[in-house]
Amino acid sequence: MNPNPVLRKLGFSNDDRLVIIHVDDVGMCQATLSAYEDLLDFGLISSAAVMVPCPWFPATAAFCRAHPEVDMGVHLTFNSEWDSYRWGPLSTRDAGSGLLDDEGYFYRRQPPVQASVQEAAVEPEMRAQIERALEAGIDATHTDSHMGTVAHEKFLPAYLRVARDYQLPPTVMFRGDKLGFRARGLDDSLSMLAAEASATFEAEGIPLLDHEVGLPLDKPENRLEQAKQIISELPPGITHFYIHAAQDTPELRAIAPDWPSRVADYETFLSVELRDFIRNSGVQVIGNRVLRDLMRQ
Description:
This protein is α/β, with parallel strands linked by helices. The protein has a single domain (5-295), classed as TIM Barrel, CATH 3.20.20.370. The protein has 13 helices and 7 strands.
């Protein structure tokens, strides 16, 4: 593809490598919020997103009100994946919406919610989560998707409408053509929809990202080397680099079987070695706020 026009708008060259170092799942539990606070103080991360339906959202919102400069997006949530720690939609308790499983929470995994949800229920839930964040005093900088659930024909059109209406960069939507989206694993019809939306958004001047990469939740070993390898191999353009950081607490261990990887993310991004490596790599770290401000100009 042609170079991302956002690079020039932000004062970079077409060959520059930019990365957003992003913390997912803030507010899922206490350990995610305390980890985020530490990482923010350390200075290596540049963005994060909050799970509004989750129990630790109010505390996250309070932190954001006390620190209005933070780069916090809305992690649009349609799944509740854990066995004994659950949450559900804000917009409805109607089982006919298809948002609720037999236990009265969001479905745990993507396929059941994508199969069951009524399209008419998708957009109200997205708007309810964004409105709750804004009303709680969060100066939202972008929207993204928990577990990638919005990458589906029932969700994507609503997601793009909501992003445009609230003027929040849609970080789930990347630059690309149909073949590129097929290579990302999307089916033929969704690839066509995504490619058309990408072209339309870019023509309107809405900033889009080029690439996405993250640390896997099933390989906690050698996390520092994994992160350094990702940074060293970043291509030109803007990359969304997501992590799932949490402090090691009894609560986290009880909730999440993948807790070792979440703790490893937290410890790795408090590493002076990694911070020095990134500073010497030639990679430029940015947040989503600059993209949101560019979108609103």
